[in-house]
Specification:
The protein contains two helices and six strands; from the N terminus they run ββαββαββ. The protein is an alpha+beta fold. It starts with 11 loop residues before the first strand and ends with a strand.
């Protein structure tokens, strides 16, 4: 939900009340430890979902959790680990994942 109490255009809320977002991160984000860094960051924030490399060289992150945790992840993804160079982060609403933890998908 946005600050107005209406659903935000960039979030989808599941039956469990969790907000879910799909991020696509572009730049130098493959081969630099980005997935493992994202796993550590998302797990620390209590999020569930997954991170995986996409064929076009970007990284997909699907995450569900509280709005505050998702905002923290969003900010972190814009910076990335020191070995990465993030050029852009796209965000779209999605359904919360079935998983109850955050995983690296190979």
């Amino acid at each position: 939900m946005g600050s107005t109490g209406r659903p935000s255009a960039t979030h989808s809320q599941g039956d469990d009340g969790l907000t879910a977002v799909r991020f696509v991160v572009r730049g130098r984000v493959q081969g630099v430890g980005f997935r493992w860094w994202t796993h550590s960051t998302a797990s620390r924030l209590g999020l569930r979902g997954h991170v995986r490399n996409l064929a076009d060289g970007s990284v997909e992150v699907v995450a569900a959790g509280t709005d505050d945790a998702l905002e923290a992840l969003r900010s972190a993804l814009r910076e990335g680990p020191p070995t990465a160079k993030v050029q852009s982060v796209e965000e779209t609403p999605t359904m919360p994942p079935d998983s109850d933890r955050f995983e690296v998908v190979h």
